[in-house]
Design brief:
Chain A is about 30% helix and about 20% strand. By secondary structure, chain A is an alpha+beta fold. In chain B, the strands form 5 sheets. A 5-stranded mixed β-sheet of chain B has the order 8-9-10-15-16. Chain B has 15 helices and 16 strands. With about 400 residues, chain B is α+β, with helices and mostly antiparallel strands. The chains are: A alpha+beta (about 350), B alpha+beta (about 400).
Chain lengths: ~350, ~400
């Protein structure tokens, strides 16, 4: 590690946001009165003062190069007085008070390969994780699956023809850096084979008591193997959470034959209408099939189109399924209901059907 | 081009299609950066073998900080030497993710010199992610960042970089200044962000209204969500304009109200505000006619997280309504009390939400000195197994009489 510089500062925090705000925002901070969606990916916010701020939202992709950031900067300079922002879902937004700049900006973005959309009753960009690009615990890639899914669903990003918002998220393992657990559709990488134990390395790389304690089902016990201190795993008790691998690199769990993707539906975080909900398991397993993951893209398109064709206006995926009931969802979607769909972790009993409210 | 790019037939397929291609991004950066050439080669290999090639991070970082750098090494360093170390740096983003082109270009210049030239704008927690550099470049990168006033964010068992929605900067629904509060908390807890001292991570997320655009209720240990407690503001003439413009007020608005507290007689919309649950649906549908009330503040909720270890949780209500005024002392005091109890009693890798489940909400409330109220539960308990801590004995009454 290099030496610290002499006039080294610490704990100064991020730059204050105010210096980055466009003048129209500084002048109208806290004074916005209403907004309207003018067309896909474009909205106007109108202030009490009458000022109008136009937002153009473009797909960005989460993994971008400094080359691309500099291209965004050029666009911001050309059309927006040098101002831009990003959204919580990896979109890039250009903000301007000049209505005449909207169409030329959209044209330039299109030439750069960045479609505009994702506002209103549309699919916004997929929140996702690092995957094979940069993560040690990934059960699938992230960027590649997202690219394949969004290439397929692009019309639902660039147009607003869905009954309601649709939020898709991808996490490449159960750690869920992408916190997919409350998404309309969640794509979740899963492992299905218990960790291998590198007995030569356990003692050297890991704190054995911590490894035992890390297992939520108490499947890991200290053991002496070939005279060396190590652990043993009761394989039938493993639910493939990989928490042990997180605390102990000598327990690798990734496995090409068994890793893959599960699909979850019906979660939301907004409080609008129904309270926030967790996503529930729809498809227990689909294979990793790079580079285009066709089984995953087909499954998701089917789910999107089934919901779009049957949901009421404003009805999110989870609200629709709750109205029609899960048995009907499985019948309509053609997804086979299996043992894996039934919860067997904590509080599983609360998820059993405890009434005769059934449809036939 | 610096040198010939590796052959990547599988990845090349992902250059096609209308959605922005991350492969194009890596190739663009690879024109001047050999790290990205190796990354393409390694990623193509993962696509072929269906397995990742990254190892656990070791302990790497910058001096004086315990978090903010994620160590990353590949498991085939001889074949991919330029990314044998490929560490991530998390840089604390400005509230609301607003930038000037000038500031972004400075970050790009640093990362061109010091790292891979690849970024995430942004990571899931909100930071600017500078993706991939070597151990010897960490301290120089931080040194360069100091000169442009960007600091490192959180990682590990610390306060993670707080994030917020754009709030009052561009949204009429924001019930408090989310960007101001996010910045204030970030500055107040710099030590806790940079030096991990907790059982596990702790996240703050600031949403301006119950639409919760930063997923605060699902993704933060402390969720601070804007709300109001008086009547929805209504412009009756504009409601009529929506109706005249073709909106079916009954089916689009009234029938979707979860509290059934609205009525539309064909001419006039009425709201029984004392039953309103502040869900936002009617306001979302008619933003020109309806708005949150004027008595605005926030609800404080605690405990959400993803599944690892004991299952996913949503945050639950701690304070139903609090005025959001700097310096937010009451919330910071509550936070400190929560940290005291959790740091004392929490297990390794146990989030606050899991800790509350383990010790029981009632006991937790006593420990953090908060009175139980009905807003904290979906419903009271259904089982009769109450832990009473004391009981009377025969002579208790006499003692009381004696005084």
């Amino acid at each position: 590690m290099a030496d610290a510089t002499p006039e080294r500062r610490t704990d100064y925090g991020p730059p204050h946001y105010e210096q980055f705000l466009p003048p129209i925002i500084k002048e109208n901070y806290g004074k916005w009165k209403y907004h309207e969606i003018l067309k896909p990916g474009v909205m106007v916010h109108v202030s009490e003062t009458g000022a109008k701020l136009y937002t153009i939202r473009a797909s960005s992709g989460r993994l971008i190069s400094i080359n691309k950031i500099r291209m965004y900067c050029d666009l911001a300079d050309k059309y927006c007085g040098g101002h831009l922002r990003f959204t919580s879902r990896h979109n890039v937004e250009f903000l301007t008070d000049k209505k005449e700049n909207i169409d030329p900006l959209i044209k330039d973005l299109a030439e750069m390969g960045h479609p505009v959309g994702g506002i209103g009753n549309a699919i916004s960009s997929i929140v996702h994780t690092q995957g094979w690009v940069h993560c040690h615990s990934a059960a699938t890639d992230a960027s590649g699956v997202v690219k394949a899914v969004m290439d397929d669903l692009i019309e639902y990003f660039t147009e607003t023809k869905l009954p309601a918002k649709l939020r898709i998220a991808l996490a490449c393992c159960l750690n869920m850096c992408g916190a997919v657990h409350c998404s309309d559709i969640a794509i979740l990488g899963i492992h299905r084979r218990p960790p291998r134990i590198l007995h030569d390395k356990v003692k050297k790389m890991c704190e054995i008591p911590n490894v035992s304690a890390s297992c939520p089902t108490a499947a890991i016990r200290p053991a002496t193997v070939d005279g060396k201190p190590s652990v043993e795993i009761i394989e039938e008790q493993c639910m493939f959470c990989a928490n042990c691998f997180t605390v102990c690199p000598a327990l690798p769990i990734a496995d090409p034959l068994n890793d893959g993707i599960s699909i979850w539906v019906g979660g939301k975080v907004s409080n609008a209408r129904h309270e926030p909900m967790f996503s529930k398991l729809a498809i227990p397993f689909l294979p990793n099939n790079p580079p285009r993951w066709p089984e995953v893209t087909t499954a998701i398109r089917n789910l999107v189109e089934l919901w779009a064709a049957n949901a009421n206006k404003y009805e999110r995926m989870g609200e629709w399924i709750e109205r029609i009931g899960w048995p009907k969802f499985f019948r309509m979607s053609g997804i086979e209901f299996q043992k894996e769909h039934i919860d067997d972790f904590k509080h599983a009993g609360l998820t059993y059907k405890r009434s005769t409210h059934l449809t036939f | 081009m610096a040198s010939k790019l590796p052959s990547t037939p599988l990845l090349d397929d992902l250059e096609k299609g209308e959605w922005p291609s991350f492969v194009k991004e890596i190739k663009m950066a690879a024109e001047t950066n050999p790290m990205c050439e190796d990354l393409l080669g390694l990623l193509e290999r993962s696509y072929r073998e269906k397995i990742g090639h990254w190892k656990h991070g070791g302990i790497v970082g910058v001096m004086g900080y315990g978090g903010g750098v994620i160590g990353r090494y590949n498991d085939l360093p001889e074949e991919y030497p330029h990314i044998s170390h490929f560490h991530t740096m998390r840089i604390n983003h400005p509230s609301g993710w607003y930038y000037t082109s000038e500031a972004l270009r400075k970050i790009c210049d640093i990362w061109e010199k010091r790292g891979s030239g690849l970024t995430n704008m942004h990571g899931s927690t909100g930071d600017i992610i500078l993706l991939g550099t070597t151990t010897d470049q960490l301290e120089p990168t931080f040194s360069d960042l100091q000169k442009i006033d960007f600091d490192i964010g959180g990682s590990g068992s610390d306060v993670r970089t707080p994030s917020c929605c754009c709030g009052q900067s561009r949204c009429e629904w924001a019930c408090y200044d989310t960007m101001g509060a996010c910045y204030d908390f970030t500055m107040a807890f710099q030590d806790e962000i940079h030096r991990p001292a907790f059982p596990y991570k702790f996240k703050f997320k600031f949403s301006g209204c119950p639409n919760d655009c930063v997923a605060s209720i699902a993704r933060s240990d402390m969720s601070i969500i804007g709300i109001w407690r008086d009547d929805i503001q209504m412009d009756k003439a504009t409601v009529k304009e929506y109706a005249d413009g073709g909106m079916d007020i009954k089916s689009d608005v009234v029938d979707n109200c979860p509290a059934k507290c609205m009525d539309w007689d064909g001419k006039e919309l009425t709201i029984e505000n004392s039953y309103c649950r502040k869900c936002m649906h009617c306001i979302n549908v008619m933003p020109k006619a309806l708005a949150p009330g004027k008595d605005r503040g926030a609800t404080i909720l605690l405990g959400s997280k993803a599944p690892i270890v004991e299952g996913a949780l949503l945050s639950s209500v701690m304070i139903p309504f609090i005025k959001m005024e700097p310096p937010y002392q009451e919330i910071k005091d509550l936070t400190e009390r929560i940290w005291d109890v959790w740091c004392e009693e929490g297990k390794n890798r146990e989030r606050v939400g899991e800790f509350i489940q383990r010790v029981g909400m009632g006991n937790f409330l006593e420990a953090i000195e908060v009175e139980p109220i009905a807003e904290m539960v979906a419903h009271p308990r259904e089982n009769p197994y109450v832990f009473y801590e004391e009981y009377f004995e025969e002579d208790d009454g006499e003692e009381e009489e004696k005084g």
